[in-house]
Amino acid sequence: MNSRPHKQSMSELKLRRLTEHNQRLREDLARPRIRVSEASASLIRYCKTTKDPLVPSVWGPVPRADDPYQNQSAGGKGCCTIQ
């Protein structure tokens, strides 16, 4: 019994897997990154400037026209449809 082709195919498989893994690592390395301090500052800035209608204790009451969670009933129909 000749085990030579099996060993060659196994080594080719290992090489292919390593090559694919290497490519994924290169893609990860090329991904743009920012410092944690910059990301944190950006998140804090967003939270301070973006009003959340679900937290009226912080932002005050939201006018009905500006509330995205207010029922937008059209033609007297309810907000839900049961089929």
Description:
The structure is a single chain. By secondary structure, the protein is mostly helical. The protein has a domain of 37 residues. Helices cover 54% and strands 0% of the residues. It is elongated. The mean pLDDT is 83. This is Guanine nucleotide-binding protein subunit gamma.
Explain briefly what this protein structure is.
The protein is mainly alpha-helical and 83 residues long. The chain is built from 3 helices and no strands. The chain has helices at residues 4-30, 36-49, 56-59.
Distance between the termini: 67 Å
Helical content stands at 40-55%
Number of strands: 0
Mean pLDDT: 83
Instruction: Return the structural class.
Output: mainly alpha
What integer value in Å does the Rg equal?
Answer: 28 Å
Sequence of secondary-structure elements: HHH
User: DSSP helix count?
Assistant: 3
Strand content: under 5%
Q: What summary fits the major beta sheet?
A: none
The assembly state of the depicted protein chains is: single chain
> So what's the overall shape?
elongated
Keywords: Lipoprotein, Membrane, Methylation, Palmitate, Prenylation, Transducer
Family: Belongs to the G protein gamma family.
Membrane topology: Peripheral membrane protein
GO molecular function, one term: G-protein beta-subunit binding
